[in-house]
Amino acid sequence: MSLPTAKQNTRQVHFKNNLSRRAVALSISTELLVLLDQKITVTSFYQDKY
Fold first, then answer.
1. pLDDT tens, residue by residue, 7-47
2. How many domains, in total, are found in the chain?
3. Angle 10-11-14 from CA coordinates, rounded to 5°
């Protein structure tokens, strides 16, 4: 009885860790994309001005 539950628990923990890692990676990538977008708009803005 204890073995299957332990296996399930480790599986759930792995699943949760994967989810959190994915969420962190997603947030980081979106932040990077936003930063890149801002950089592009700023550089194009300056190029238009000067």
1. 888 888 888 989 999 999 999 999 999 999 888 888 887 78
2. 1
3. 85
